[in-house]
Amino acid sequence: MGNFYTNYTLRGPSQQAVASALAGRSAIVTPTQDGCVVVFDEQSDGQDSAVITELASRLSRELRCPVLAVLNHDDDIFWYHLYLNGKLADEYDSSPGYFDASAEPSAPAGGDAQKLCSAFGAASVAEVESVLRKSSFDEGGYTFAVERHTDLVRALGIPSFGVGAGFRYVADGELPEGLDDEGMLRVGESESSGGITSYTEYQHIITNDPKIRNGEPCIRGLPIAVSDIYDYVAAGMTPEQIIAKHSELTVEDVMACLLFIAHHYPKKS
């Protein structure tokens, strides 16, 4: 049996901001390397494309960053979706027709080397193009999908943490080279791993001061309470709309509030 894994690489936002954006899910976030973090999400391990694309689009939109969602299916398929500002910008499938027994073997479909390089600040367009175009049935092609993934992250200059790694592997202690437990943030609780500790990486943002809003939890000592954000979210406002209303807030501030709310506030009906 080959590899089965799904993960997400985000360029730009901090590890804490990404963990905050994942509030309410069971996920693991790597430290920042080369300006990127990698997310392993438990629900995405099921390789449901609807789950994967929804999460990638949301993270890209809320954190205003490129998100590369990748999937390896049994080391036969390497698939990715690239999201920019919440919109699908590029998609790729190394083995189109794989699930159609009547289909003839075909070359990889999709993939825009220029868009990938632009999104992640890489200059090696020709090298990325070569990685994308090699067919598994061509001489010199890739036998295993993980080999293509390895070459792609190397060409893009993004962290190799996601190569061969998904939520299940990492939660079970199969850590990619260069990672250790202390450096990762774990969000939520995992049924399959017996319960992951919830990391509440919002203490440096959510503060309590008896002189401000009567001691309510507030944002960085500002007279903006977490309860205000709670009401905005309940009213259907997006993080972008909240920041437009309170220009002194950052995306990380709002995401920290959402994580705090997920852990401490009842859901509004």
Q: Could you walk me through the main structural features you see in this protein, from its secondary elements to its overall organization?
A:
With 269 residues, this protein is of the alpha+beta class. It is 32% helix and 18% strand. The protein has an 8-stranded antiparallel beta sheet with strand order 7-6-5-4-1-3-2-8, sandwiched between helices. A hairpin with a 3-residue loop joins β4 and β5. α7 (226-234) crosses α9 (251-264). The protein is elongated. The chain starts with a strand and ends in a 5-residue tail after the last helix.
Overall number of strands: 10
* Strands side by side in the biggest sheet: 7-6-5-4-1-3-2-8
Q: Into which percent range does the helicity of residues fall? A: 25-40%
Number of domains: 2
What is the CA–CA distance across the termini?
A: 45 Å
Kindly estimate the percentage of residues that lie in beta strands according to DSSP.
15-25%
Question: What is the H/E order?
Answer: EHEEHEEEEHHHHEEEHHH
Q: Structural class of the helix and strand makeup?
A: alpha+beta
Provide the gyration radius in Å. 20 Å
Shape: elongated
Poorly predicted sequence stretches spanning 5 or more consecutive residues: 191-200
Average residue pLDDT: 87
